[in-house]
TrEMBL record:
<dbReference type="GO" id="GO:0070403">
    <property type="term" value="F:NAD+ binding"/>
</dbReference>
<protein>
    <recommendedName>
        <fullName>Phosphomevalonate kinase</fullName>
        <ecNumber>2.3.1.286</ecNumber>
        <ecNumber>2.7.4.2</ecNumber>
    </recommendedName>
</protein>
<dbReference type="GO" id="GO:0004631">
    <property type="term" value="F:phosphomevalonate kinase activity"/>
</dbReference>
<keyword id="KW-0444">Lipid biosynthesis</keyword>
<keyword id="KW-0418">Kinase</keyword>
<keyword id="KW-0443">Lipid metabolism</keyword>
<dbReference type="InterPro" id="IPR005919">
    <property type="entry name" value="Pmev_kin_anim"/>
</dbReference>
<dbReference type="GO" id="GO:0005829">
    <property type="term" value="C:cytosol"/>
</dbReference>
<keyword id="KW-0862">Zinc</keyword>
<dbReference type="GO" id="GO:0141050">
    <property type="term" value="F:histone H3K deacetylase activity"/>
</dbReference>
<dbReference type="GO" id="GO:0006695">
    <property type="term" value="P:cholesterol biosynthetic process"/>
</dbReference>
<keyword id="KW-0153">Cholesterol metabolism</keyword>
<comment type="pathway">
    <text>Isoprenoid biosynthesis; isopentenyl diphosphate biosynthesis via mevalonate pathway; isopentenyl diphosphate from (R)-mevalonate: step 2/3.</text>
</comment>
<keyword id="KW-0756">Sterol biosynthesis</keyword>
<dbReference type="GO" id="GO:0017136">
    <property type="term" value="F:histone deacetylase activity, NAD-dependent"/>
</dbReference>
<keyword id="KW-0479">Metal-binding</keyword>
<keyword id="KW-0152">Cholesterol biosynthesis</keyword>
Length: 489
């Protein structure tokens, strides 16, 4: 998508003050101010940051109200000239520094008005990021509000339908795809802000001891009101921006300087080398760059891992368990193969919808996808476990029971053991070859003898072995009931 997407937004007269002079601290003042900033960050128990266009100018993306900003030039009848596109822009020092601060426990939530997706691409954890004005890489389902992240920017804005359809599995007890229509997430001037992102931002600013505003002139509501919540909580406010801002008068520290320059000095003081600064993640959602935060899921009581051969009926059993457990929405169904398929389709520019359907199309790609999945797993063994949880983040945050339908690896089990060891139930589904054949199983070389199909055949201590043969309905139901009792124990 072109960086000058802004000319496609509707006309809007209230763009705030534009073209104000850019100021610059003396080196002496700057040093003192950064020292104070370091102290304030170290003594804060909970810190949020709000970013604006000023953190991305170093990536070649023009701001809006600076001397060469989009709205400043527009007033003069001019347009910005730039060669950068959203797809070629890379995260700046500041984007990476914010990741480092988060990883080291100095930053707890990040709110951005930028749509360039650079926080996302620098590896900032999605569950701690609110993008208030949208993200050029994201589509959102108008029914279930799942977000789908792409490798390339989406050439659509103003929340229009993109023509794509949602393939998220519905959580109503049936394994149906949602099929909702997808829209881009880029807001037009008068569009309301995304409700969840705004609520999270308000809640986090209200409980913060410190709010950092970076590269934003704080002219747009409701963003300009967020730091006031921190002040109301007796928290402190630091503003770093080249131009004066609307909240300078209530800030505890104001630094008029380029954000990257300030962040370099700050990281030096913290003795944090920003070595992530040189690494640009190629996977858009890169859990390798984040530490999995299991403390978000302390409420979980049981995680059921289901394993079984093709056509053993593991999806069906997962669905049955889900139906029985999902009173008061206390259960979530996770499929490790879902993020694998979505990421594979993205990276190979395939049609995600066809990939998810059980069609000849899928068979063509199945073998290649298995190989591709292996390479990704070698880089990060838990990648698909983490992505599956991230994909259903909101549901996972409230569900007491998780059912993971397609465990295939020792590393899948190890991942869940590492974070949820005392909550796990390992279930193996066994089904005779005759029963599987009745359900349509046909042996396929390189698939049914591959590691992903066979690794868990041995050396696992299962908590429960579920015998699932055809024409044994009584036995099926009694085993389901035993399992439910085990899960609720
Ligand atoms: Zn949906």
């Amino acid at each position: 998508m072109s960086i000058s997407y802004s000319e496609n937004l509707s006309d809007y007269p209230h763009k705030g003050k534009v073209g104000m002079p850019e100021l610059c601290e003396t080196e002496e003042d700057l040093e003192k101010k950064v020292a104070l900033m370091e102290q304030m960050i170290r003594s804060s128990l909970y810190t949020v940051a709000i970013t604006g266009a000023g953190v991305s100018t170093a990536a070649g993306i023009p701001d809006f109200r600076g001397p060469k900003g989009v709205w400043t030039l527009e007033k003069k009848g001019l347009k910005p000239t730039c060669e950068t596109t959203f797809d070629t822009a890379t995260p700046t020092f500041t984007h990476n520094a914010l990741c480092t601060l988060e990883r080291c426990g100095y930053l707890h939530f990040l709110i951005s008005q930028n749509i360039d997706g650079l926080h996302h691409r620098s590896g900032f954890p999605l569950e701690k990021l609110a993008e208030l004005h949208g993200n050029v890489y994201c589509e959102e389902c108008e029914l279930c509000h799942s977000r789908i992240v792409h490798e390339q920017s989406i050439d659509s804005y103003c929340l229009k339908r993109t023509g794509n359809v949602c393939n998220t599995t519905k959580s109503n007890g049936k394994l149906l795809k949602c099929r909702g229509k997808l829209r881009d997430t880029i807001l037009d001037w008068e569009d309301p802000l995304p409700e969840h992102a705004l609520k999270m931002s308000e809640a986090n600013c209200s409980k913060a001891n410190l709010c950092l505003c970076l590269g934003t002139s704080l002219q747009i509501r409701p963003c300009r009101d967020l730091p006031k919540r921190t002040k109301k909580n007796n928290g402190k406010l630091i503003i770093i921006n080249l131009q004066k801002t609307s909240l300078d008068s209530i800030a505890d520290l104001v630094i008029h300087e380029r954000v990257d320059h300030v962040m370099k000095l700050l990281m030096n003081r913290f003795n944090l080398d920003n070595n992530d600064g040189n690494v640009i993640s190629t996977l858009t959602m890169n859990p390798v760059a984040n530490i999995f935060d299991s403390s978000l899921y302390n409420h979980v009581k049981r995680i059921v891992l289901l394993s079984g051969k093709r056509k053993s009926g593991k999806d069906y059993i997962g669905e049955k368990l889900y139906e029985k457990l999902n009173d008061e929405q206390q259960c979530t169904l996770l499929h490790l193969s879902e993020p694998l398929k979505i990421q594979y389709a993205n990276e190979h520019q395939l049609n995600g919808q066809n990939m998810m359907d059980s069609s000849a199309y899928k068979e063509t790609y199945r073998k290649d996808m298995i190989r591709w999945g292996e390479t990704k797993r070698l880089q990060c063994p838990s990648i698909f476990c983490e992505l599956a949880i991230k994909q259903k983040h909101l549901i996972c945050l409230t569900s007491q029971h998780w059912i993971v339908c397609d465990i295939r690896r020792y590393t899948d089990i190890e991942f869940f053991k590492k974070y949820f060891h005392d909550k796990l139930l390992l279930i193996r589904i066994q089904s005779s070859i005759e029963s599987r054949e009745k359900r349509g199983f046909i042996f396929s070389q390189d698939i049914d003898d591959s590691e992903s199909e066979c690794q868990l055949d041995s050396n696992v201590e299962w908590n429960f072995v579920f015998i699932n043969n055809e024409n044994d309905i009584d036995n099926f139901h009694s085993q389901i009931n035993k399992l439910i009792a085990l899960i609720r124990e």
